[in-house]
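Box 3.1. Reading complex inputs
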Amino acid sequence: MKLFAGIDIGSCNAKAVVIDDKAGVVGSHVCRSGIDYQKSAREALKNALGEMSCNSMPIVSTGYGRHSIDFASATKTEIACHARGGFAYLPQALTLVDIGGQDNKVVKIDDQGKRIDFKMNRKCAAGTGTFIEEIANRINFPLESLDTLARQAKKSLKIGSYCTVFASTEILAHIRAGASAEELVRGVFESVVDRVMEMIPFEGTILLCGGVVEYHPFIADLFKERISGEVIVPPHPQLTGAYGAALFARESAG
Amino acid sequence: MGEEKRVAIGAAKQLKAVMAQHFYELDEAVKTKSKKIAWCTSVGPAELALAADFLVYYPENHAAILGSNRTAMDYIPIANAQGYSPDICSYLTSDIGAHLKGETPLTQAFGMQSVPKPDILLYNTNQCRDVYDWMSYYAREFKVPIYGINAPRNQFQIRDDVVKACAAQLKEIVPALEEISGRPFDIDKFREVLATSLECTHLWEAVLDTTTNIPSPATFFDHCIHMGPAVVMRGRKEANDYYRILLKEMQERVDNGVNAVPGERHRFYWDGMPIWGKLRNLSETFNSLKSCVLVSSYCNSWVFAAFDPKDPFRSMAEAYCSIFIGQDDNFKENYIADKVKRFSIDGILYHDSKCCSTNSNTRYGMPNRLKERLGIPYLVINGDLNDLRCYSEEQTITNIEAFVEQIEESS
């Protein structure tokens, strides 16, 4: 079986996806990116492959660490790979939103899968996965408990700042005022949605990708409340970029 | 077959010499007290000072040097700590920070003990208010007089009454120049300086226009370096001599097929300030993507076509009121649209400079309007002219690579 791999080295996690010559996913793995991208890329790929053999397998790397992977045959930006992976899942005109650890990307794709436009968030980390991690630390709740907590909130709190530090101090003010953990977390999730909504006017179908939606699916529900068009989440939103990279690897091999 | 290599611009040697002459003359004047020195904002009334026999020093040029060699990052925090905000012009904070620390790169480059002390400070608010605040700082610091033009900004047309008012303000500077220099103002010398400066404008514009050629013989990043004499030596024949050499070389590069970006595939417009500390990195990034950034609002800002030696005060006022940065978005959009067409541009890069709102044209919807009008994509690069705390190399490179990928995908 001919195999192709995509490796997405993000600011938080390394993702590997292995596909066959029919573009079907035959293996995937996610691990922390850490400080040795080469090592984490190898680990992600090894685990994605499992027992499969991978002689001279075309590999495309993407993400912030894309240029650090010396065994990749080519590199592509994460914007290209998310668009490619997203369109493969939903082949129609769409707006892809990727909420990652370090940045948010909005990519407009036409009905042929070509990118029309893209935008990344401004300099601050507010509205990204890193922001959610920071807040989880601040309120001393495990990251994996946040989604359940947010769903239990009776109401939401407004966290308006697009500066992570200011947002954290807003949260302190809410804590002083007696806000519950559920309300705080829901407020944080709402603010993530706010930051994305500020990037462009949204219309048509939205495909939500990235690790933040994978681990906190309630954020997708909040998007659905805000957007008139359809909001779709692929089965593994975190793997969209790595899957797109694998598709590029497959295309490059002809 | 190997990759075609970039060919360096030979005139860089003469550029170095003419810039060195500028600083050596200033140093000599300080040591011998042979000439008075005016500090002038970069698009301020320099020709008037030259006509009055002053040597002219440009703090903005000094600040750009601090940005280019990245020592700005040592100096900006010093000015910040003195109450000059990180949100205001980082040219200003770099320069004042260097002054507070008593350092200048001119010491190492030209053996100058310090920047040359001013006898008078000249400004024009045509570009922003910060230049006035900057000069005001030095007026207090050195206890020297400050004069200037309070030109309006966001103009939708160059109004006759505004030009008249600015011409009157120019005339008001003359007695101060006479008093400090100790000699009467010579109107014929003024006409002569203006004629020389006008010739510099024509030569520099001709150099810039050679990049209409496909492929282009030079990049915006080259222009940022070679614009030096048009900024600090305009009104002097040495600048014109230099641009004749550079123009000849540019024409030869066109004739001989010497391209700034070998294998040029994409042609981009740069709007906004340069990111001085990252010129080389950005140049290499675009080069690796076979993309040539070849025309800009910035380098074209030292083109003062309205100068008329027959009517020196009025025409100088008009020329300095007409600069790109002082106009409203309608003017700027027409200006960029014209350049996009003439230079066969595939995409526009907007530098949103954190500290420079007046020269960041991304904040009032212009990129979307121009995209709609011209049908070409744009990319906003977040950064700053000197303050690299406001710049992310990783994000910028990813954005640039994705922009080029998108253009290639759609072609």
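In summary: Chain B has a mean pLDDT of 96.
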